[in-house]
Design a protein that fits this description.
The protein is of the alpha/beta class. The protein has 5 helices and 5 strands. It starts with a helix and ends with a helix.
Length: 279
């Protein structure tokens, strides 16, 4: 195989890789369109539950549980697949920085996403690994493993506070306290003069509301993280596709130069043969 044929073969291989990456970028873009619809609905649901909780707790602040801040679980929402830059590495760096400011007692970690697992399992103790979602339709399937893990950890360690660690809508890392819920509403004043009428005891109502809030908030942060992940993947793949296009153009230029050299050599051979024939 000549040098020019090797370059052409390499260029064809790069073009095949380029088409695959471009397809992945298109899929990621389609995923952001779906997530836009899901996320808007989920955010509205969470805000509605929070408004209900704020109204309720303005009249019943005394029933909120007091959870020691030393007993913490960090829920990290990473990616199931790659091609999204340092998406998972930045989560781990933020976690390590956060843990340095915590009390000496070991914090518990739930890591969601296969690509996150590969970098966290050997660097942090007390980690529970849960598979993540590849597409929006798979998100519901990971809620039960998360909730089951939380229940198991509470049975082992007692009451715990849960903090979500994930990429927000602008790509920045967010730490959000999920359990115990609604503590920041305790000192809020209600817009109503009379307490809400309940068909349940206040404690039971708060328990049910917290359960609904946890599921809704988990869905919101997972959707938000997936949106940031797919946007990161689009940007990362756009850069990769641009690099492959530049490399392909360079190989085409080199191939053309070699072809020109081959043509010149062929012309020289023809001229030499003609010169010998005339003599």
């Amino acid at each position: 195989m000549s040098k020019r044929e090797e370059l052409q073969h390499h260029r064809r291989s790069l073009n095949e890789i380029r088409e695959i990456m471009n397809s992945m970028k298109t899929l990621a873009f389609m995923e952001t369109r779906k997530l836009t619809r899901f996320l808007g609905t989920q955010q509205a649901m969470v805000r509605s539950i929070e408004a209900t909780a704020a109204d309720f707790l303005s009249f019943h602040p005394e029933i909120l549980p007091d959870i020691p801040e030393t007993n913490k679980i960090f829920l990290l929402i990473g990616s199931e697949h790659g091609f999204c830059g340092d998406f998972n590495q930045s989560l781990l760096r933020h976690l390590e920085t956060t843990l340095q400011t915590q009390p000496q007692k070991e914090a518990l970690v739930i890591a969601v996403g296969h690509k996150l697992h590969t970098i966290i399992e050997n660097r942090t103790n007390g980690v529970t690994l849960i598979d993540g979602a590849s597409v929006t339709e798979e998100v519901m399937s990971i809620l039960n493993p998360i909730v089951d893990t939380l229940s198991d950890l509470q049975e082992q360690h007692g009451m715990l506070s849960l903090h979500g660690l994930y990429h927000g809508k602008d790509g920045a890392i967010v730490i959000e306290k999920l359990l115990p819920s609604f503590q920041h509403f305790v000192h809020d004043r209600s817009d109503f003069s009379h307490p809400p009428e309940l068909n349940l005891a206040a404690e039971e109502f708060l328990l049910n509301l917290t359960e609904q809030y946890l599921f809704a908030a988990l869905l919101e942060i997972i959707y938000t993280s997936m949106m940031a992940e797919n946007r990161s993947r689009i940007a990362h793949l756009e850069g990769a596709v641009k690099h492959l296009d530049d490399k392909s153009e360079e190989l085409a230029r080199q191939s053309n130069v070699l072809r020109q050299e081959e043509i010149i050599n062929e012309i020289e051979v023809i001229l030499l043969n003609n010169s010998n024939a005339i003599q």
